[in-house]
Amino acid sequence: MTAIATTNLFAVAQSCLVECDAARKVERTMRAAAAFAAGALDRAAAPPPQPIGEPGRPAQPLLVAPRALAQRGLGSEAGRAALVHAVAHIEFNAINLAWDAVYRFRDLPAAFYADWVAVAADEARHFTLLQRRLDDFGLRYGDLPAHDGLWEMARRTADSCLERMALVPRVLEARGLDVTPGMIQRLHAVGDTATIAILEQILAEEVAHVAAGTRWFGWCCERAGVDPADTFQRLLQQYYRGALKGPFNRRDRLAAGFTPLELDRLDALVA
User: Fold this and answer.
1) What digits encode the pLDDT tens for the residues 210-249?
2) What pTM value is reported for the model?
3) Interatomic CA distance for residues 148 and 89, integer angstroms
4) Which of 13, 100, 124, 239 is in Cβ range 3.0-4.6 Å of 26 for a Cys bridge?
5) Torsion-angle region of residue 47: left (phi > 0), alpha (psi -120 to 50) or beta?
6) Angstrom distance (rounded) from CA 228 to CA 218
């Protein structure tokens, strides 16, 4: 890997965020994470973050409304390829989400940046695994349409680290904890062990990512002097009234820092 061009963490995060080529975004992310782990990046004064816009991403996939995406069963190779492509799109967006958290939210403890740089590297690795699986199906990332729901919530929470931590890791990314076990079960039924191995690895590591969101949501709530459980409930009602889907994976959500009270309230919201 070539050396990074600057030692400023925020500038590096921005360079990773705005990179449009998927392969270069992964390479930049891994170089940045290695430099950060080696102590080569600092948090010296940098220009304030620019207003949130579109992240760097390739011209494809075509982004459409979620309801416009075709629903395909996993009994066919085309259906399994579509599933892998959809998860790859989520992981690609997650790279951008992690770097935007690093770039956008300033004057936070060093551990905040350590967490989200590590998450960015994990998501880049997940994306690479999924891209290799797409190769098996004769596809590349971008060959199928996808939706933009993850980044839309990034836009809506760009002015509040508290809201970002509550609603991206603990709602959107936590949804993966709920649905991935069912995907794995359905793939067992058709014998797709290669995709199962990838999804099992992603599921195990996403628990830690959601836990990072829980940890920093709690920190932001403490700083603001508000109750985390009540604040989370209020934000869910503000942003997701009538839009939450269950059932919820209580085991993995508890491991990711959700409290039984929060989970009971989530169940009540979708009852």
Assistant:
1) 999 999 999 999 999 999 999 999 999 999 877 889 999 9
2) 0.95
3) 9
4) 124
5) beta
6) 6
